[in-house]
Amino acid sequence: MPKPASATAPPDAEPVSSPRRDRADGPAQADELHIIGRRNLKYEHLAKATGGTKYTADLKLPRLCFGRLLRSPYPHARVLHVDTRKAEAMPGVFAVISGADLPERYGIMPSSQDETAFAIDKVRYVGEAVAAVAAVDELTAEQACNAIEVLYEPLPAIMSIDEALDPEKPRIHEDQGGEGNIHKEVHLEFESPEVGFAEADHVREDEFFFEGNTHAPMENHAVIAQYELHGKLTVWSSTQTPHYVHRELSKALSMPTAQIRIIAPPSGGAFGGKSEMFSHEVAAAALARKAGRPVLIELSREEVFYCHRGRHPVRMRIKTGVRKDGSITAMHFQSWLDGGAYGSYGVATTYYTGALNTMPYKVPRYAFDGVRVFTNKPPCGPKRGHGTVQPRFAIECQLDKIAEDLGLDPVGMRMRNAVDPMSGTVNGLRITSCAVRDTLRAASQRTDFQARFRKLPFGTGIGLASSVYMSGAGLPIYWNPMPHSGAMVKIDRGGGVAIYCGTTDIGQDSDSMLAYIVSEVLGVDPIDVRVCSGDTDLTPVDLGSYSSRVTFMAGNAARQAAEKLRDLLLDVASERLETPRERLRLGGRRIYNRDDTDRAIDFIEAVQAAEARFGTLAAAGSYTPPKLGGKYKGSGVGPSPAYSFTTAVAEVSVDLETFELHVDKVTIAHDCGRAINPMIVEGQIEGSAYMGYGEAVMEEQVFRKGLHKKPSLLEYKIPTILETPALESIIVEGPDAEGPFGAKEAGEGPLSPVIPAIANAVYDAVGVRFDATPITSDRIMRALDRAKREGRIAEPAALAG
Amino acid sequence: MLRLTPFTYVTPASVAEAVQLRKQYGDEAAYMGGGTDLLPNIKHRLAEPKFVIGLRSLREMQSIVREESGGLRLGGSVRLSQLEHSPLVRNEYPALADAAAVISSPQVRRVGTLGGNICLDVRCNYYNQSEHWRRAVGFCMKKDSEICRVAPGSDRCWAVSSADTVPVLLAHGAQVAVFGPAGERLLPLEELYRDDGLVPMALQPDEVVAAVRLPPPNGLRVVYSKLRIRMSFDFPLVGAATGLALDVDGMVRQSRIFLTAVASLPMRVRAAEELLIGRPLTDELIRAAGDQVFRSTHPMDNTEGSIPHRKRMARVYVERALRDFARANPDA
Ligand SMILES: Cc1cc2nc3c(=O)[nH]c(=O)nc-3n(C[C@H](O)[C@H](O)[C@H](O)COP(=O)(O)OP(=O)(O)OC[C@H]3O[C@@H](n4cnc5c(N)ncnc54)[C@H](O)[C@@H]3O)c2cc1C
Ligand code: SF4
User: Fold this and answer.
1) What is the CATH T-level fold of the domain A63-155+217-270+274-307, as seen in this structure?
2) Minimal C-alpha gap between B252 and chain A (Å)
3) Which terminus in chain B has less CB density within 10 A, N or C?
C-alpha cells in the first residue's frame, strides 16, 4: 500500500553537506564509486516482497513435533512442587521437562547470571516459564501443559520503582544486587559539577518519566531444535545475536559450543527484543534431546510480551546549569530504572542512561547517578536506542524549557553547545566525525522552524530536538580481546562471490550492506554476490545486530576480506594489462586502467588467472575497534568508534475539543557518515521516526493486578500507517575516517529526538508541558483542564467542559 | 501460537436447516457469520463449540433489497464491506456506511457480517484474553468464576456492548427479523438487547438474525462518531449515533441518541432526546443535551482509554452532530 502521507526526499536530492574527502582510506571521490551511495535493489528483495522468504516457523523438518511452555500465573511466588507425571502419561506427549532438568544459571551480562531456563525455587513475573512439553501437535502440548501440577506459595509482588526501593519489602532475588530490590547502582562524577553550577547564571531542575514499551516485531519468536544421533545440536532461531545464543545455550545445556550450531534464519523484526537467549530456546533444545525428534516452539503474541527485554520505564531528575548565552556549565543526571524481574542487559542499560548525555552538547562538568531495581514484571532490556532514548527525551525537553527561560532560540542554543568533530567528552568519549550542526541547520531550514516556533495559532505547534548514537559498542558484552566481527569472502571460478559473515539481517538490510561493500571492492554487481549470514558453523563470529554496530564493524571486516582478494586480482591484472596497480580500478565486472578505461580485463578472466596463480580465492577479514574510553569503572559503556547525530522537527496539532494529538509531520536530518544505500538509510530513518512517534503518543507496557494489562496487538497500541505522520528524511553526509566507505549508523539514532521533538511541539501548540510519556488524549485533556482552572492558558471556547 | 480447538464446520443450505442443525447439536454448536468474533473467542477458550454452523454462504441472508415501505432489508450475512460500499446504503443511510467503515480493518470488514456485528459478544478487558491470562488475574463471572474483576462487589457483569453499526441501526429505528424453530418473527432491534453482560441478548440460542429492516429515513438524519486510539483495528471506546429530524420551521421533530461502548447494551439517552423534541437547535439547547449525555454516561474501567475522556467524548460527539444539524438548517 502506498504511504498516504509520507514524503521522503526525492531520489535525486542533494545530500545536505557535500561528501568530504575520506581521510584515511579508500577511493576518495564519490564519483569513483560504482555501488556505494546508490539506490541499489535490496538483497533478495523479491522474496521478502512476495512472501517467499522462509522464516523460522516456516521451516519443515521430518518428524517435527511441537513444544509449548507452561508459564507462571503469579507475579511472585515460591515454587513448592512441580509434578509432570500426568502430562508424561498422556498419549502423543514425547517429552516433559521442568526446572530440575536445567538448573544451570545464565544471563547475557557476565555480572547478571540470574536466570534459569525454568523457574526453580521462585517465579518472579507472570509469564515466566516453569516447564515445557513436546507433543505430536500444539493442542496436545497445550493439554499436557495444563496437566502439569505446580504448587505455588504466592508472595507479595513488587510492581513499582518506589516499592522496589523500600528496604522493608520482600526481596525478589536473595543473592543479586544491593539493599531492598536494587539491582545496580552507578555513581560517576567528572570535573566537579558543583563548580559548574556555581558558575551558572541559571540552574534548572526537572523531573521526567519515560514509560516502558516493547519492541513488537511482526514475527513472534520461534525456534526449532534438532538433536542428531552423533550428538550435535542444530538450533534455528529468530534471534539477532546467534553468537551470544551459542555461548548461553552451551552454558544452559552444559554442552560444549563445538557441538552446537545456531542458525538465524531471516527475521521478521527484532529491534533489540531478540538479543539474548530465551527460555523457549533452551526448552526446544532440551526437549529435542529428550524426545529424539526436532521440536518447534512458536510463541504466541502474549508470550512475546512476556519475553519483553524492552524499553525500561525510567524516572529521571536533571539539574542543569547554563550561562546567560545558553552554554551549559554543568549537568547532574539521575535515573531510576524499573528493570523487571531479571538482569538481562540491565547493567548496561543503567550505564547507558548516563553515558551519552555529554553529547551532542558540550557538558564540561557532569555527574550521573543511576539505579536499576528489580520488580515482578517481565525483564526489561535493550530496545532500539538502548537506554539513551529515555534520557534524551528528558534532556531535550529540559533544554526547550531552558531556552524559554533565557529567551533564546532553541536552534541557536543547541548550535552554541554542539560538540565539535575530533574532540572528546568529559566522561572520556572520543568524538571523530560529527555533523550535528549540519543536522540542526538542515532540519530547521527545511521546516522554516525559527519563523514558525511560538508563532503558530493555539492548538498547532512545532518542536525540535537533537541526539547522538553509537555506531557499535566499543566493547563486547563479555570481555575478550578478539575481533567484534569477522567475514570471509570466496570467489568462484565463474565470477560468483560468496560472503560468509556472522551478522543477522533483522530487516535493517545488513545482507545488502555486505553485498554492496564487497561488490564495490571487487568491481562486481551485487547480483553476483551471495550472502551467507548468521550461522555459527559456517560464518565467522559477528557479535550481533545490536548497538547499531553491523555496518561499521562487519562492513569493515567484509571490506578487509574483499580487499585481500582484490589485491590478488590486481596482481594478475597489472601484469596482463602492463599497468601499475595504482592506476587500476575495479567496476562493472572489469578491471581497467583508470586513465584509459578501454584497457581492461574481465573480472572472470582475472579471477581464473588469480586462482591458477594463487590457489583457491578465499580470504578472511575482521574488525576490532580501537582502544576507547576512560579509565574509570563503567567507562566501558558509551565508547564507540564513531557517533551518528540527528535532529528532528515535529509539527503537531491538537484537537481542542477531543484532545486528540495529530503529529502532522516529522522531519529528520541524520548524519550517517556516508549512506551506503540512501534508500535503505531513509527506510531506517523512517522506521525509527515511526517507532519514536508510537512511543511518544500511544505505546505503554503497563501492568494491572500484577500482570501485563494488554498483552496483544489489539490493546497494546502501536501506530498503524493511518496515524503515522508524514515523514521526511534528510541524509546528512560527513564521511567518517574509520567507517567502511565513511559510513556510520542509521538504524537507531534517528529514533530518540523524535519523542522530545513531539513533546516540545505539543507545548508550542497548547502551552502545557508533558514531562511523561506517552502523551495521550486523556493526559492532554487533564492537563488543559488544570491549566485552564489555574488560569495558565486563556480559555478557547472549545475547551469548556 | 494460539490455536483453535477442533470443531466440525457445517454449511446448511437454508436458514431453516441452520436452525434445525442448531437444535440437533444443542449447546455444543454455535452459529458463525464471518467468525471474526467467534474464532478469537475460541482461541481464548471463551467458547469451545464442537460444531460450528456457517451462515455466511446462505444466499437468502446475503442481499440488500428495497422493501415496499421504501426502506431496506439487509440480510444477516451481508458483509461489513458491503455496507460500507453499497450505493443504496451510502446514499440513504450514510451513517450506517460510516459506522461499517470504521470497524476494525479492511480485512476484517471483508469477512465480518452484519448479523455477527449485531450479535457481537459484549467485551471486557478482563475477559477477552487468553486462558493463561485469565487464570493469572483470576477468572470472572462471565466465565469460570463468581466475581466480577472490574466491580468486585457487584452481582452483575459489566462487559461492554461494542458494536459500531448497532447504535446507527437503532437510531434509524431498525427492526430485526429473527428466524427460529417457529419461523420468522419481527421485533424492534432495541428489544434484542439487555443490560446484562452475562446474557446481553434476548435471543434464543437457536435463533438466527436473518435480516435487519430499516424504515425509510423520512427526514431523519443520523451521524455516527467513534473514539478510538488508532484509525484502524480498534473497537470503539465510545461511539455516538445522533439521529435527528427537523420540522420545516426548524423545530426538532424526532431525536434518537444511542451510545455504544459505555454500557452492556447500546445505550439510549432518552433524557437528551426528550429535551430536544419540539425545540429549535440553539446553542443552549445543544449544550443542555450534551450535559444530559455526559450525566447519563457511566463507563467502567474495562476498555482501553480513560473513563473521564470517554464520558467527555460522548458529549462532544453528540454536540458536534447537533451543531452540524443546526448549521445545515440555518432557519433553526
Ligand atoms: C481485531 C478486531 C477488531 C474489531 N474491531 C471492531 C470494531 O471496531 N467494531 C465492531 O463493531 N466490531 C469489531 N470487531 C468485531 C467483529 O469483527 C465485528 O463485530 C463483526 O461484525 C462480527 O461479525 P462476524 O460475522 O465475523 O461475527 P461472528 O464471529 O461470526 O459471530 C459473532 C457472534 O454472533 C453470532 N452470530 C453471527 N451471526 C449470527 C446471526 N446471523 N444470527 C445469530 N447469531 C449470529 C455468533 O454465534 C457469534 O456468537 C473486531 C474484531 C477484530 C478481530
Ligand atoms: S465486567 Fe466483570 S464479570 Fe463481566 S467480563 Fe468483565 S470482569 Fe468479567
Assistant:
1) Aldehyde Oxidoreductase; domain 3 (3.90.1170)
2) 24
3) N
Give the mean model confidence (pLDDT) for residues B300-325. 97
Instruction: Give me the pLDDT at residue B331, please.
Output: 60
A800 CB near ligand 1 (under 6 Å): no
ipTM: 0.96
A73: nearest CB among B125, B135, B227: B135
Contacts of A715 in chain B (CB under 8 A): 125, 304
* Residue whose CA is at the smallest distance from ligand 2 atom 2: B148
Q: For cell 478487558, what's the residue?
A: B125
pLDDT in tens, A206-265: 999 999 999 999 999 999 999 988 899 999 999 999 999 999 999 999 999 999 999 999
Task: Tell me the C-alpha distance between B13 and A384, whole Å.
Answer: 54
With CB atoms and an 8 Å threshold, state whether A714 touches B233: yes
For domain B221-328, the question of CATH label 3.60.20.10 is answered with: no
How buried is A38 (Cβ within 10 angstroms: 0-12 exposed, 13-18 middle, 19+ buried)?
Answer: middle
Query: Which band of pLDDT confidence, cut at 50, 70 and 90, is reported for residue A13?
Result: very low
Q: Where in chain B is the domain with CATH 3.30.390.50?
A: 221-328
Looking at the complex, report in whole angstroms how far the Cα of residue A712 sits from the nearest Cα belonging to chain B: 9
CA angle A786, A788, A790 (to 5 degrees): 70
Dmax over CA atoms of chain A, in Å, equals 86
Tell me the one-letter amino acid at A75: P
Output the CA B139–ligand 2 centroid distance in Å: 9
pLDDT in the model for residue A17: 42
CB contact under 8 A, B132 and A220: no
d(CA A235, CA B275): 69
C-alpha–C-alpha distance, residues B231 and B105, integer Å = 9
**A142: chain B residues, CB-CB within 8 Å:** 3
What pLDDT digit, counting tens, does each position of A714-740 carry?
Answer: 999 999 999 999 999 999 999 999 999
3-class secondary structure, A614 = helix
Does the beta carbon of B35 lie inside 6 Å of ligand 1?
Answer: yes
Q: What is the pLDDT of residues A460-516, one digit of tens each?
A: 999 999 999 999 999 999 999 999 999 999 999 999 999 999 999 999 999 999 999
Q: Classify domain A5-55+482-623 by CATH architecture.
A: 2-Layer Sandwich (3.30)
**pLDDT (0 to 100) of residue A794:** 72
Q: For chain B, where do the domains classified as CATH 3.30.465.10 start and end? A: 59-119+160-214
For B59-119+160-214, the fitting CATH number among 3.30.465.10, 3.40.50.720, 2.40.30.10, 3.20.20.370 is 3.30.465.10
The model's pLDDT over A663-721, given as tens digits with 9 standing for 90+, comes to: 999 999 999 999 999 999 999 999 999 999 999 999 999 999 999 999 999 999 999 99
Domain residues of chain A, as ranges?
A: 5-55+482-623, 63-155+217-270+274-307, 314-475+632-789
Q: Do domains A5-55+482-623 and A314-475+632-789 have the same CATH topology?
A: yes
Residue A83 cell numbers, joined: 509434578
Query: What's the pLDDT band for A321 if we cut at 50, 70, 90?
Result: very high
Where helices occur in A256-375 by DSSP H, the ranges are 279-291, 301-307, 346-355
A115 has a pLDDT exceeding 60: yes
Q: What is the pLDDT of residue A31?
A: 53
Residue B105's closest chain A neighbor by CA? A720
Residue A4 has pLDDT above 50, yes or no: no
Identify the CATH number of the domain defined by range A314-475+632-789.
3.30.365.10
pTM: 0.96
Residues on chain B touching A72 (C-beta within 8 angstroms): 136
Interface-testing mutation among A714, A718, A723, A779, with chain B (most B C-beta atoms within 10 A): A714
In the numeric block, the cell 476494525 is attached to B104
* Distance in Å, alpha carbon of B5 to nearest chain A alpha carbon: 7
Out of A302, A704, A720, the one facing B233 most closely (by C-beta) is A720
